[in-house]
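so the lab meeting is tmrw and i was supposed to have these ready like two days ago... anyway. pasting both below. for each one the top line is the aa sequence and the line under it is the structure tokens. i havent really looked at them closely yet so no promises
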Amino acid sequence: MSELSSKADQLKRQADLLGLTREAVFTDEQAKEVLQGKITDGYLVKVKIDLDSLNGMVLILVSSIRKHIMELYAVVGTSPTFRRIRTFADHVQISTDLGDIGKTGGYDPAISENIGRAVHRAFTKEKLEELLPLWQKKDPSHITEILENPLLLATKGRNIKLQAEVDKISTAKFRYENPMKGVILPIPKPEDEASTAQDASVPSISTEPVKGEASALERQISQFRTAFPKELNMKTVISPINGVEFDNLMEGMEILFRVPTETPEGLTNAQILGLIDEEGKIKKEPVVGKFLGIASNKTEYHIFAEGPNQYLFHSIEEHPVKVAIPKPASIAGTGNKTGAAQTQKKKGGNAQQQDTKSSGANLFMLMGAFITIVLIGVLIFVMVIL
């Protein structure tokens, strides 16, 4: 039974590796050659980051045949384990160390996410085509100069030091045997792959800086990001009836956001904001942010607000909308105050009526006394005459 079980495991492993290899090549023949060791289908780029008071690693798995990123891991934080990791170390050992850091919570998911997204934007297909011939010669020299500015912009950092190495590798074996599996998720490719954002954030030797509205929008956005160490992508809560229009929003006004939990980034943000309970359920209540301002051009409206713990909330709308705000504290309390006021008015009215009745009774008594005195005077006068 043990032999049969062992053979079954081997067959399953080979089938899994074949399936993973097919994602990095164009043909089944290429996949077989990769598994036989005749050709290598990928590179693993290992980048060590020293950023202000933070340290970290970025691992970028690249298909050398399809010329695109297969998986990208960014793990940045304050764990002392980062200091002993070296870029020239074996990738299995590096991945094991990063997995241990993930288990102990020694990294910052939000900053790691921002760094991963910046690296995705920097390593475009065109850029990879320039770099792959260099990596074939084991030359990683251009990696640091390509990543330095995008990472500073993504993290609002001041001082950064990068070290990079490149290893030839089987992409399938890396993915199949990855010690980080189930502990640290790969950073997904950003959905907002607009060329304007890419050109504004990624320096290139062969292209000119972006001109016109795109760079103006980027400058507006950077002004909001300056004062905040972390940025979370959110969705604006829209209220067509009771919401506040863009023109009527004032700085400091509380507005509502939701976390887009359908993406790995959103789930990470929900965890950061404490929206996931012990059972793994996500709270549905919106999150309150204090409105800071809007950066816009003709097609995009970037809404910024200050969230809890100095997180910068950032949502994007394609056109002006009415933004939802928190409901007033208590309508019932207002009703009670109104009822009390009405009761007070009734009491005041009754008092006025009572005062009026009292004044009338006093006047009637005075008139009676006056008539009585007159009658007594007349009787005395008549008796004297008689």
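ok protien two:
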Amino acid sequence: MSIVYIKTAVSVTLALLLIGLLWQRSTLTALLQRAGTWVLDVCWIALRLVPFLATYIVMGYQPQSDVATFYYPIGMSALEGGIPYRDVYSCYSPLFGYWLAPFLSLWSDMRMVVLAMMVVEGLAVRLTFRHYQIQETMGQRLFRGVFYYFLPLPFVMCVFSGQEDVILWLFALLAIPLMQSRPFLAGLVLGLGMLATKAVFILLLIPVWLLTLRNAKFAAWFTAGLVTVGLPVALFIFWKAGLLFLDQQSHEGDYLKAPNWRSILNPFLSDGLRSAVGIWKWGGLILTLLIMLQGVWRIHKTRSNWRYQDYLPFIYILTYSAMSVLQQNAISNYAYLFMLPLVFTITDFRRLWFCVGLIGFNILAAIHPSLWWRLGMPYYDRLSALAKPTAALEYSIEILIFIGFIYYAIQAMNALRRPKPVAQAEPYAV
């Protein structure tokens, strides 16, 4: 349980520092206004690179969890010319290991995987800063970047866990300059995102593709880009690995994790409902798609002038927060998927309780995966099981994180009612 205590201590410390930043926001924003974008690089060095060096080089710890189980073996297999699914088990997209391979060629160590994920996050922060909240002053936008770097969840997921989730947002960002006038290239980029990340990226591709249908010519070129990059890879993988690429990814949905609606409801379910794994798996996917389609319909009917850049963060947050609630294999790590766009497009620092709730959500989501794992990955099949203090604590954390996911999904849906897109909204008061 030592890792749980370490993550808790780090998360609480960062939370206290964040409260201090919010308290002195006006002063800090004024200072940042006179600085430059190099502040983001300093934050990356101080809050990513230095903790990485202290944890993995000075103290000699080795990465665990997904880095050791999935990322490193997949990356090393790609470096050696292996075929994913056939030569190494993978629940990720076909090219996932191949973008890790160049990093591992420099240092074939699991710690290099963590460093690669840190570089990806740094790029995502820079691009998010560039594309969003352009109506704010430099100091206000830099404050968002500083605030993000201090959040407990991104810190823990990036430095301690080496999670890859932020790469989905990075690929979504890379398509922004192309979606206005170069649909074929935009399709290539987002198709590559599908091939280089994981299957849930398709949940973003579906609404984006549907919204391109407003312009038949644009949609045709966009689809051509997707097919150009996707079809050859799919055929090659099918030739070399058969249907393993479908089997290994789909089976991940069979595993029961927490927190999600299945884990929350489990103490109240009958044996028949608990054993209906397929219903929970596919039913959750269908409901996620329906919620996503509701967001698409709202954009289509009332925000027809919004560009890809305008609706992207809201449809992204809506999709992946809903997925985190409804998929039975969802875990609190998934909050890392949308934390960056949430901070830059929805967070209003004038709303004190929103900020406090966001910090609290980050603390719980940062420590819960390790706590749940070290308690034996519990699924409570009766209410009496919650009588134990540790079980009651863990289940309570599940409920709070679950509520947080729902709240942020609602906030994203509400953001689609804005009269103007985020790039044209009124600037926040400082």
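from a quick look at the 2nd one: The radius of gyration is 21 Å. The first helix runs from residue 2 to 23. will dig more after coffe
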